[in-house]
């Protein structure tokens, strides 16, 4: 029995009884976690430890052209059950604190194709979908994954970096919510994290500090960017340059620091 036959057997065994039950009770609740956004639907079928099995739907024409791509420290295998399209298999060949060189290799895929991505330097981009693509996806993450990074597809600039650990991800979401609520009373906690070089959420705290208190946040960013021994120095320089170009008044804060 090949990979496609096994995948079809798994999906049929799980979904056929559920579909029969829904036929008798149309308003019943499907006992699976699911999400749908911009033409991508995910139905989580099974979870075990760090592994997950999902049924994934890709629809053409339901989302804007993708501008960025995320690389996560995980293993992902997808078996195409139906549909056809073009897949760009991506590989980071070189990476620094602010950019990555991303190599691409295009493949035409159809029913029975197997797509595999492994580790933080590999990714894939599905495009030119002929209607719909349905795939069975198996993912597995290490217990201590490395950072996830998001890069622009056109020139490889780093857009976002986040911890790959779930608990730290929840903490990052909490800090994002604090920023959206403009909770300025949290600036001291955020500033403390921004000063801890080994903290996995340090960069996020630096960015959040700019939102909560621009004056204090920019001083912290300038401090990081000005220290060549700081591991976030290059990333800080890139963000500082970008911010001054967009908001020239920030240069005055830099001048005050230099005079001091």
Outline the structure in words.
By secondary structure, this protein is an alpha+beta fold. It folds into two domains: 33-162, Sandwich (Jelly Rolls), CATH 2.60.120; 166-259, no CATH class. It has helices at residues 3-24, 166-180, 187-194, 202-212, 214-225, 233-246, 250-259; strands at 34-37, 40-48, 51-59, 68-71, 75-82, 85-95, 100-109, 114-118, 122-127, 132-140, 148-152, 158-162. Strands 1-2-3-10-5-8 form a six-stranded antiparallel sheet, covered by helices on one side. A three-stranded antiparallel sheet has the order 4-11-12, with no helix packed on it. A three-stranded antiparallel sheet has the order 7-6-9, with no helix packed on it. Strand 11 (148-152) and strand 12 (158-162) form a beta hairpin. The longest helix has 22 residues, at 3-24. The mean pLDDT is 83.
- Approximate helicity band: 25-40%
Overall number of domains: 2
Task: Note the overall shape.
Answer: elongated
User: How large, in whole angstroms, is the Cα Rg?
Assistant: 22 Å
What would CATH call the class of the largest domain? Mainly Beta
Q: How do the SSEs run, as a string of H and E?
A: HEEEEEEEEEEEEHHHHHH
Neighbour order of strands in the largest sheet: 1-2-3-10-5-8
Tell me which CATH architecture of the largest domain applies here.
Answer: Sandwich
């Amino acid at each position: 029995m090949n990979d496609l036959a096994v995948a079809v057997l798994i999906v049929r065994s799980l979904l056929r009884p559920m579909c029969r039950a829904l036929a008798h009770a149309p308003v019943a609740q499907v006992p699976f976690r699911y999400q749908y956004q911009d033409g991508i639907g995910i139905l989580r079928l099974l979870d075990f430890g760090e592994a997950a099995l999902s049924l994934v739907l890709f629809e053409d024409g339901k989302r804007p052209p993708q501008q960025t791509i995320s690389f996560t420290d995980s293993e992902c295998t997808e078996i195409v059950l139906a549909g056809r399209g073009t897949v760009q298999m991506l590989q980071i060949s070189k990476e620094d604190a602010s950019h990555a060189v991303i190599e691409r290799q295009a493949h035409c895929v159809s029913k029975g194709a197997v797509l595999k991505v492994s580790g933080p330097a590999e990714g894939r981009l599905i495009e030119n979908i002929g209607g719909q693509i349905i795939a069975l996806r198996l993912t597995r993450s290490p217990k201590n994954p490395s950072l996830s990074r998001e890069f622009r597809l056109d020139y490889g600039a780093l857009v976002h970096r986040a911890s790959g650990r779930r608990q730290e991800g929840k903490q990052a979401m909490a800090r994002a919510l604090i920023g959206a609520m403009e909770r300025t009373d949290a600036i001291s906690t955020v500033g403390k994290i921004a000063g801890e070089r080994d903290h996995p959420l340090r960069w996020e705290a630096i960015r959040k500090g700019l939102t909560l208190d621009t004056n204090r946040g920019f001083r912290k960013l300038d401090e990081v960017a000005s220290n060549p021994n700081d591991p976030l120095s290059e990333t800080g320089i890139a963000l500082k340059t970008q911010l001054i170009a967009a908001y020239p008044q920030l240069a005055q804060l830099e001048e005050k620091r230099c005079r001091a």
